[in-house]
């Protein structure tokens, strides 16, 4: 149990003193980039899915 307590105390101390946290503006720009990239990827997958569905409908209706 002592090892766990020491580990937790050391972890908290390291987070407080040794970690360099990004500025809020950097977090906002990164979040915006991730959001835009996710939307573009979702639209791309949606277009591919729509095209594939239409191709399969056309293929199966030809028989």
Report on the structure:
By secondary structure, the chain is an all-alpha fold. The protein has a domain at 28-54. The chain has two helices and no strands. It has helices spanning 2-17, 24-61. The radius of gyration is 25 Å and the shape is elongated. The termini are far apart. The relative contact order is 0.06. The model has no long low-confidence stretch (mean pLDDT 96).
How is this structure best summarized?
It is a single-pass membrane protein. This is Protein translocase subunit SecE. This protein is mostly helical and 63 residues long.
Task: Provide tags for this entry.
mainly alpha; 63 residues; 86% helix
Q: Specify the number of helices.
A: 2
Provide the gyration radius in Å.
Answer: 25 Å
| SSE succession | HH
Strand portion, in percent? under 5%
**Structural class designation:** mainly alpha
Largest sheet: none
Ends: how far apart?
A: 70 Å
Low-confidence stretches: none
- Number-wise, the strands total 0
Please bin the fraction of helical residues.
over 70%
Average per-residue pLDDT, rounded, comes to: 96
What is the approximate shape?
elongated
Write the layout of secondary structure elements.
Layout: H1 2-17, H2 24-61
């Amino acid at each position: 149990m002592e090892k766990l307590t020491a580990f937790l105390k050391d972890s908290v101390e390291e987070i407080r003193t040794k970690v360099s946290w990004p500025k809020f503006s950097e977090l906002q720009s990164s979040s915006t980039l991730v959001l835009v990239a996710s939307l573009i990827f979702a639209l791309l997958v949606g277009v591919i899915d729509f095209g594939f569905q239409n191709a399969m409908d056309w293929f199966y209706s030809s028989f």
